[in-house]
Structures are given as C-alpha cells and as structure tokens.
Amino acid sequence: MEPGSDVFQWGRGPPLLSNPVLDQLPSYQSLRYRRRPSTGSSRRKRSVSRQRMGSSSSGRWAGPDTDDLLKTVSPQRPVKELPISMSDKRRVWEHHNEQRKDMSSWQQWWLGRQRSFRRFKDDSHEVFSALVLWRKDIHVIEGKFGTGIQSYFSFLRFLVVLNLVMFLMLFCFVTLPVIISDYEVANSTMLNVTASFNCSAYPSTLRQGLVLFHQYIIDALSGTGFLEQTYLFYGYYRMDSVHFPTIQYRLPLAYLLTSIACLLLSLVWTVKRSVHGFKLNLIQDEDRFQSFCNKIFAGWDFCITDERAARLKHSSLHYELKTDLDEERIKQKIAHRTRKEICRIYFLRIILNLFVIGVLGGCFYAIYRATIYSQEYGQTQPQQAQNFIVDLIVEYLPSIVITAANFITPLIFEVVIRYEDYSPAFEIRFTLIRCVFVRLASIVVLLFTLWSQITFCGGKTCFCGYNNNLYPCWETRVGQEMYKLAIFDFLIIGAVAVLVEFPRNLIVTHCSCSLAKWFGQQEFAVPQNVLEIVYGQTICWIGSFYSPLIPGISTIKYFIVFYIKKVSLMQNCRPSTRPFRASSSNFFFLAVLLIGLLVACVPVGVTIGHISSSKACGPFMNYNISWDVVPSAIETLPGSARKFFYVISSEAFAVTFFVVVCLFLFYFIALARAHKLVVKQLKDQLQMEGRDKMFLIQQLYKAQKTFKQQPAWPRTEGSELEQEGMLHPDRDYYSPPSSDVFPEDYMDYNLT
C-alpha cells in the first residue's frame, strides 16, 4: 500500500463506500448526530456513502447530459435560449433538424408559423421599447449618475403615464359626452332642480363691468371667475343623460364609476410595480452579512460611464460600508448600555418627540388659520379688488403656509434626530417618515378645515346639509383648492431650480471664497424630490373627483418637471453623499405613493358616502349623497341582474367572501412559512458545505505537508506512478494528485 493511502483513496475506479476522512466531515457528523436515536444508522450511512459516490462519479462541474437534454427540449423553444454550451447547442439544433424531417407537412407549417410569430413578437417588443417615453434620456442619466437617481426619473415617468391614462378615462367617459351634448351632436337631458330655491341658487362668478388684466391672471391661477363655469370643475357637469341612437348614457353613474375606477387603477398598478421591489428589499434586509457581501462583491454600478459619477459611486460605497459598520458598533453599544443610560436616552427622546409634536401642531394650526382667513377674505371682499398682489397672496395663503411647513420642518427634524441616538440608517428612515407625515397631513388639515366651514351653519342645522350661502357648490370650491395647490407646487419647483439652484451653482463655480466652498453645489437628494412629486400626485388623486381635468394638468406638470429636474441635475446639482440603491429606492417610492393613495381615498370616500352633495350644481344635485346614484341605477336593471347585485351586496355574501379570503390568506401565509423554512435549510446546507470544504482543504494541506517530510523515492522511468500522475517528471519523489483532481473526487459531497 502506498504511503498516505489510509488518508486518501483515489484511482481510476469509483471511490469506496466508506472513507475515514470523508466520515469526519462536519456535515456528515451533524447528520449522524441528528439521526442518532434511530436504529437504522448503518443503513443510512451506506445510503449517504452511495450519495457521495454518485455525486463524485457525476462531478459537480460536469455539464448536463446532452442525451437527456435532447429528449426534454421542445422543438418550439429557440436554441439560443438554452443554458448550455455552443457544442451542445449545435447537437440540439441538428437533432431538431432531424426531427423536422419526420414531421408531416402540417406540423412543419405550424412550426414555421410559431417561429414567425415569435420573431414578430420579438421585433414588436424592440419597436415598442424604442418608443418608450424618455428612454434615451433616462439611459444617459443612468450612465452618468447610476441607478439610484435613474430610479427617480423612471418613477416620474411612471406618474406621467399613470396621469395620462387617468385623464383619458375621465375625458372619454365624463367630459366628452358633455362636449358632444354642448355641440348638439347628440340629444341630452339636463338635471331638473328638485330642491328648494334656497338650496339650488348658484350665482354667477363672472366679473362684471370693466375687468382689469391682473384679475384674469388671478382667475387663471385660482380657478375662479371665468374658469369656474367650465369643464375643469365639478359644477359644470349638470347633465343627467346623453341619448345615442341605441343607448342612453347616464352621466352621474359614469362620473362616479370612472372616479372610483381611476383610484382602483392607481392602486393595482402601484401594487404591481411595488411587488418586485418589496422582494428585493426583504432579501437585502434579512441578513446583515448578506448586505455586506452585496455591497463588496455586487455593489458597483456598471452602468456608470462618467468619471465624476464613478468617484461619487466610490465614495457612496465607502459611506454605505461605514454606515453599516457604525450600525454594528451602535448595536454593540446598545447591548452594553446600563439601566441609567437607557432611562436617560428614553427621557431625552420623549422630550424631543414632544417638541416635534409641538412643531407639527403649530404647522397644522397655521394651515387651519390660513385656510379660514383665505375663505373669509374671499367671501367678504368685493370682486373688484384693487390690490393685485394682496389678492393673489390671500388666494394662495394656504398653499404658501403648507409649502413653508414642508420646507422648515425637515430642517428641524434633521437637527432633532442627531440627539435621539439612533443608528444612521434608522435616522434616515425616521426623518423621511416624519417628512411624509407632514406633507400628507397638511393636505388632510386643509380638507378638514374646508369641510368644517362647509358644514358649519352658525350653530344651527344646515337646511341643505351644508352651508349653501357661502358654498352654493362646495365640490367646485374643494376642486379650486386642489387646483391652486397643484399650480403652486409646480411654480415652487420651477422657482427653486431657477432662483436657488442656478445662482448657487454660479456662485460656487465662479467664486473662490471659503463661504462658497463651504456651501458647495446643491445636492440632488432623491428622497426629498420623491416626496415632492408624491405630494403633488396625492393632490391629483384627491382633485380628480372635484376637477375631472386635473389629471391632465398633472400630466403636463410632470412632463415639464422631468426636464426641469434633468437640466438641474446635469448643470446645477450633484448626487447626494447618502445614496439610494435602485432596488430599495423603487420600493420606498412606491410605498410612499401607496400611503399617498390611501390618504387620497379617505376624503373622496367621505365625499361620496357621507357629505350631502350640492343641490345647485354637479351631476348629483338630485341625490342626497353621491352614492345614491348606484342603487338608483340598479333599480332600472332587469330582474335577474337586479337580483344578482342584491345578492353580492347582502350580508351573507359578504361573510362568505370574507371567509374565503381568510382561507386564501391563511394558505398563502402557511406557504410563505414553508418557503421560509426551506430557504433556512438551504442556507444551513450552504454553510455546512463551506465547512466541509474548509475541512477538506485542511486535510489536503496536512497530507501534502506529510508527503514533503517523507524521504524521496527513487525515480523509475515509465513507472506506474509516473503514468498515474503521482510522480512529477521534474522531481524524484512521490506526490499526491493535484488539487484540481481532489475536488472532483471528494469535494462534490452534498447533503440531501
């Protein structure tokens, strides 16, 4: 027996069923330990050895069996899509040609049609991908600044497309029938006023007499005057039905269902896009070690082609690794805190959070008072006002206060968060959560203030269900507020780019003073820019019910904002030193957008199902609330259809549907738990295989060290050792097989 054969056994034949070294593998020892209570250990030992033998004989790095591949691959599948080598692809292609010779003419014709259709689909996909909006611009941004900033512009493109689809839906199903009726293309029936004269009075808001030019500007910016009685607002749609040759189109029902459909479309589309980002974000946040590996081995963005962007990406990776290490340090620090330190930190956090609540309360109270003052000023001042600047400021006073709150509060939050002793990553997330809350809650406070004024009748019960003296068409008034918020938000975005970022860039570029260097260029902070457009999109969703054309305004607005942000990024700004990865960015964007959508659904739902609709304007002037149009439409259906809707709206159906949904939910929860358990087992197996490899490498190193210490053997020409590769041609002593043979025989051991 050769020296060392008791440690390693090799040869041309298959390995033996038992091996002293392989029996010492950590995975094998762990398997024996877990199955020790059983009686059939020897049988399982032989089965594990057989698995080891089969695994070794097949080889880990051996390619797939081509004969089996020829049997399984369908002729319809393109050969270029197969994950095999070129030689195997040639064999598959030749096999397919042989199969086609045995086919009938009909089968060959059908196969040719499938191939032609597949080519047509691929060509169509290339054509449509070339027609994608801003495809080249976004690729340029991705090449210069990476995927983090590119994800912001892709998100902006998504909102442009979403608003365009919403606008087309509302225009086609709501506005277009009214236009057709106004131009007498089809007959129509107007709504008859059934309420009392006091509730149905709607005085004209058109300015009389000599109108100054600046007053038209005020009307255009605030939605009053000549714009109030147009297709832009809710009050203009006073039509009951449009009569076509074969059908009768009911406008109130179409108005309600289209508004709901727009919100449902936004929900489904947003959720569909957020699923992929949620999976990636869940995987990245699951394991800290995996996060380190991703940053070190897969953190570089190979889309970057600009040298400055490459330096910024290098510094951002350095910042991310430093932040992760700081988080680990803070976790260790938290674990070793004394009770006194914990009490001190929590007491400080309580004080700071009370201060934050006070700041938020002050902002919300300022919005409340500004809204009340703006409404009272518009009711008490005559239409022919003389001071243009004062009138414009008062009209936009709620928008100005909201914008000031959105600008000041993030600065306060950034200062406060430094003293709360959180980890760096949690500081960013917590600050963003506070900023999201401020922006969305400010809209809620504005709407709450408006509704408190609309439903207040001086301490008495409102005869019409709302204050018809001050708000004869209150839906139009809410639409005007949303219109002003949207316009002012667009003006602020443009003004910041032109009046702040551009002069700052000029000062930093052409001024060499220390103060200019300390300020530096404006950072293109992705989260703050996302909050801006989510705030505007929430306004669009709320306003789509009160102003059907506001999605079209938002489409134009975001179309222009894209080019403003692009020019500002290219010329005036630099990427933030706190970067956002593309996967986490997409999930964060869509999560905030979903929050904005839920906030928008609350006031629209309250308007539809709770507040009395205006009796002087709009498509629901003959209904108590907007939802009453649905039961009224169901009553006009045939008996079977009416019975179907009664069944699905009954309590029995609701309970049954709830139970079925719960069963599906429990099933998917159980399935997710099972998948999580399998993933955990696979991770444990990978870790065990890593330990096996380390053990085998150590044994190989010991064996080679032992052989080097043994006396050299005399060299024999043409000996069996040289033929077996165990005797080096340039050395006169015995050597074990090289390490490239060792893994093929022994390191292909897998647990099942």
Question: How do the helices and strands line up, and which of them pair or pack?
Answer:
Layout: H1 26-34, H2 41-58, H3 66-72, H4 86-101, H5 105-130, H6 135-145, H7 147-182, E1 187-190, H8 197-200, H9 213-222, E2 239-243, E3 248-250, H10 251-286, H11 288-298, H12 307-335, H13 339-380, H14 388-395, H15 397-417, H16 424-454, H17 474-510, H18 514-519, E4 522-524, H19 526-546, H20 550-572, E5 573-575, H21 582-609, H22 629-635, H23 639-648, H24 651-709, H25 720-723, H26 742-746
Parallel strand pairs: 4-5
Antiparallel strand pairs: 1-2, 2-3
Please tag this protein with its features:
752 residues, two-stranded parallel sheet, globular
Could you characterize the architecture of this molecule?
With 752 residues, the chain is mostly helical. Helices cover 68% and strands 2% of the residues. It contains 26 helices and 5 strands. The protein has helices at residues 26-34, 41-58, 66-72, 86-101, 105-130, 135-145, 147-182, 197-200, 213-222, 251-286, 288-298, 307-335, 339-380, 388-395, 397-417, 424-454, 474-510, 514-519, 526-546, 550-572, 582-609, 629-635, 639-648, 651-709, 720-723, 742-746; strands at residues 187-190, 239-243, 248-250, 522-524, 573-575. The strands form 2 sheets. A 3-stranded antiparallel beta sheet has the order 1-2-3. The protein has a two-stranded parallel ribbon with strand order 4-5. A hairpin with a 4-residue loop joins strand 2 (239-243) and strand 3. Helix 9 runs parallel beside helix 14 (388-395) and helix 19 (526-546) packs antiparallel against helix 20 (550-572). The protein is globular and about 115 Å long. It is found in: Membrane. Residues 1-70, 711-737 are annotated as: Disordered. It is a multi-pass membrane protein. Residues 32-49 have a biased composition (Basic residues). Keywords: Membrane, Transmembrane, Transmembrane helix.
